[in-house]
Amino acid sequence: LMRTGPAQQSTVCPYACQRRTTTANKNKRFTDALEVLVEYHELTEIEGPRVAYSRAASVLKSLPWTIESMGGTEALPCVGEKTRTLIQEILQYGRSFEVEKILADERYQTLKLFTSVFGVGPKTADKWYRRGLRSFSQILADPDVQLNRMQQNGFLHYTDLSRGLSAAEARAVEAVVGETVRTVAPNARVVLTGGFRRGKEFGHDVDFIVTTAEPGRENSLLPLIMGRLEEQGLLLFQAHHPSTLALKKIPCRRFEAMDYYSKCFLILKLEGSRVQGGGQAVPAGRGWRAVRVDLVAPPIERFAFTQLGWTGSKQFERDLRRFARVERNMLLDNHALFDKAKFLAAVTEKDIFAHLGLEYMEPWQRNA
Ligand code: DCP
Ligand code: MG
Fold it and tell me: Which cofactor does it need (predicted)?
């Protein structure tokens, strides 16, 4: 007899931005498997299944119960036949054969390895794979491979960057960036965003928004901050993209499109002595490790849109935009919210949720 699942007692909302999803994922065994499928389709740039599996994974992450039988799973939104088969396999055998096949696939393994290097995306990884390259040493030894500056630094700092960061390390980075900003621009405001704002314990980088109340001055902030980091000997790598806001038509219709604010992608030197609880995370005998840091500097009147857009998670963002478009006939991106041609101003994230007619979600509830 099939047990009745809790899904039949409470309905699960179809959009991630309507569900409160904390980092306490009760269905990790299923979502880990789904994320392999998401990653596989991402790496091979197949859009349809990637979207379907990421939505399914996001629904399972939001459930306040652990799935222990198939009962009730048919009532879950975005959970289709393929996902249900996967859940069933895992319940029955403890593993999914499709996932195991992908994990053992040479192309998947190689593309995953190559894209784990800072500066290497799916296109470059695939190009190298098709040239017959299978390892870092082969890439570095190939005279025909031209690495850009970002990729050179990705290889140089690979061991540190591939390890990711703990929340304690992120706090130490926050202190360094905060001090730096206060030194060069005492009136500027700097706030943590990205995964660590959502309360994640581990992340691949630390993301910050910096802005100032003086109109136009936000564009000079990043060069000042990078200059000061350099003076302190903490800047290992920088790629600065000045604002292209004035040139662009907003809002942009695709989530994947980058925003047009001034931003920089950095590799910083984090000293072990700055990390609470000691520098165990730091390689012995060196006293520091490399960390990835992103800074974005929007004009103050766009701060709330930037904060909502950069806090993530990626699935939460995709569903916010889709909800705005499909359910409200509005356009939302990292710059603005439009109702037809009308710009809906916002000082805080709460204003944006209110414009959309959504209940406010705290950052730690956006781990969709
Ligand atoms: N983001 C964006 N535009 C960019 C860069 C990022 O809208 N040009 C958004 C997408 C993410 C969020 O900002 O939701 C943070 O991006 P990350 O890739 O840093 O993702 P997380 O911080 O959520 O996770 P992690 O850094 O641990 O991988
Ligand atoms: Mg991040």
Answer: Mg(2+)
- What are the tokens at 318? 């995709």
Largest CA distance in the chain: 69
* Dihedral sign for Cα atoms in the order 163, 168, 172, 178: positive
Domains of the chain (ranges; CATH) run 6-102 (1.10.150.110), 112-148 (no CATH), 165-299 (3.30.460.10), 306-365 (3.30.210.10)
Q: Which two tokens stand for residue 304?
A: 């709330």
Number of Cβ within 10 Å of residue 301's Cβ equals: 15
Span 38-49, pLDDT tens digits: 999 999 988 999
- Give, as one character, the DSSP assignment of residue 22: -
**Alpha carbon separation from 90 to 5, 30, 99, 271 (Å, rounded):** 17, 7, 10, 43
pLDDT, tens digit (0-9, with 9 covering 90-100), for 109-123: 999 999 999 999 999
Cα–Cα dist 324/309, whole Å: 13
Q: CA 197, CA 307: separation in Å to the nearest integer?
A: 10
Q: Please, are residues 296 and 310 in contact by the beta-carbon 8 Å criterion?
A: yes
- ipTM confidence: 0.95
As a dihedral over the C-alpha atoms of residue 345, residue 349, residue 353, residue 359, rounded to 10 degrees, the angle is -150
Count of CB atoms situated within 10 Å of the CB of 349:
20
Residue from 162, 196, 198, 207 whose mutation best tests the ligand 1 pocket (most atoms within 8 A of CB)? 207
Q: d(Cα 309, Cα 259) in Å, to the nearest integer?
A: 9
For the Cβ of 195 lying below 6 angstroms from any atom of ligand 1, the answer is yes
Residue nearest to atom 15 of ligand 1 (CA): 194
How far is 19 from 316, CA to CA, in rounded Å? Answer: 9
The answer to whether 119 and 153 have CB atoms below 8 angstroms apart is: yes
The pLDDT tens digits for 10-56 are 799 999 999 999 999 999 999 999 999 999 999 998 899 999 999 99
Q: What span, in angstroms and rounded, lies between the C-alpha atoms of 176 and 81?
A: 49
